[in-house]
Write a structure and sequence with these properties.
By secondary structure, the protein is an alpha+beta fold. The chain is built from three helices and 23 strands.
């Protein structure tokens, strides 16, 4: 390290304005070598003076413009997102009754039209048996009327048979209503009742879902694409192609996203899952929701890394650091939201008079008053206190 701070006189008023330009000294790579710097003698200059100036040749002055960062906790924008089935239905009790049989267990696959729950149908079966007997009696009565050749009696028998047929169909329908069947093939996600439980008409019994197609609703930029197009859906760290089913208005409970995205929407993305490799409830990550501290920076402060990622430079503990950042959305033509591994006390490098590499250490240049420690008199005879010293950081 250098033995002393280089002193430099600055305009005292400049240090009181925001976004001030500061003079700092960056250590060059040359000082890392073990061999001492060669001593260069100047004409009419003692050798001791030349040796004293040698450390200065290992540093250069650079003018920086830096700004404090207003960091926001990413927890402010934490929204739970997950996969859900494209088709989901709640099975409910059609009538009041007691649960007699539960034919499936939670998580089990259920075939189309398969029985899931049966309510107590003892009375319904007795009614069905009675109506079946009355229907049979009506048929016999019609046969007797036909044998006699009595026209009016035959007409009466036809009417009674028709009524008995309707009663039989109605009793059959009522008995079938006590069996809750799956409207489509899927998985039984939830079972809300147990055998022997009394339920009311309309009470939830179970939930069935079809996981052959999964959907996720994620906050996104309107420029993501049009319905019918494709987009990338990240499921537990794995990027998958998905189809854009719809772009919906952003709901009120996700209004915080508007601070990050200029034109936000709720994108409904559909993922084909014929083999069942993905499950309902798996976590979905949105690239528009940050997991690192968020701040607003000037667009001019964002540059590209060799691998194509974006980066900004910060001053951290008097050392220049390159931080990889992710662009979230524009605030204006001059400002943009970024997320990165910023730390407390980091200061953004807005501009620099020379290129600084990552890891370059800096030391402050001190600016002093024109007359150190002494008062300066004005032309009107008054006195003016000396300006306080200021440092580069």
């Amino acid at each position: 390290m250098l033995n002393r701070l280089q002193r430099h006189v600055q305009d005292p008023g400049l240090s009181r304005r925001p976004g001030l330009w500061l003079v700092v000294a960056g250590l060059l790579l040359g000082i890392a070598f073990s061999a001492p710097w060669p001593t260069l003698a100047r004409p009419n200059q003692p050798a001791q003076a030349a040796d004293a100036d040698a450390p200065r040749k290992a540093e250069q002055e650079v003018v920086l413009r830096r700004e404090a960062l207003d960091l926001r906790d990413p927890a402010e924008f934490r929204i739970p997102l997950s996969l859900s089935a494209n088709r989901t239905v709640e099975l409910v009790a059609p009538v009041d009754g007691i649960v007699r049989v539960v034919s499936a267990t939670p998580g089990a696959a259920v075939r189309d039209k398969a029985e899931v729950i049966r309510l107590d149908d003892a009375r319904a079966q007795l009614v069905l048996k009675r109506t079946a007997a009355l229907h049979k009696a009506a048929q016999v009565e019609k046969q007797i009327a036909q044998g006699r050749g009595d026209g009016p009696a035959l007409n009466l028998a036809d009417a009674r048979l028709e009524a008995a047929q309707a009663e039989l169909e109605l009793a059959t329908f009522d008995a079938d209503q006590l069996i809750v069947r799956a409207p489509f093939a899927g998985d039984l996600e939830r079972l809300y009742v147990v055998e022997g439980e009394f339920v009311r008409a309309g009470q939830k019994l179970a939930r069935l879902s079809d996981a052959s197609q999964l959907v996720a609703e994620v906050p996104a930029e309107r420029s993501l694409g049009a319905p019918g197009g494709t987009a990338t859906l990240t499921v537990e760290g794995r990027d998958l192609p998905a189809r854009i089913e719809a772009l919906l208005p952003l709901p009120d409970d996700l209004a915080v996203v508007r601070e990050l995205i200029a034109s936000p929407v709720l994108a409904r993305l559909k993922l084909d899952n014929p083999q069942g490799q993905f499950k309902v409830g798996q976590t979905v990550n949105s690239p528009w929701l940050p997991r690192e501290p968020v701040c607003v920076v000037p667009v001019s402060a964002v540059a590209n890394l060799p691998d194509g990622r974006r980066r900004v430079q910060v001053l951290r503990d008097s050392v220049i650091r390159n931080l990889s950042v992710r662009i979230l959305g524009k605030v204006s033509e001059e400002l943009v939201n970024v997320a990165g591994r910023f730390g407390p006390g980091d200061e953004l490098i807005v501009a620099s008079s020379r290129e600084l590499a990552d890891g370059t250490p800096l030391k402050a240049v001190v600016a002093e008053a024109a007359a150190s420690g002494a008062e300066t008199r004005t032309k009107k005879g008054g006195t003016k206190a000396p300006a306080p010293p200021t440092t580069g950081f």
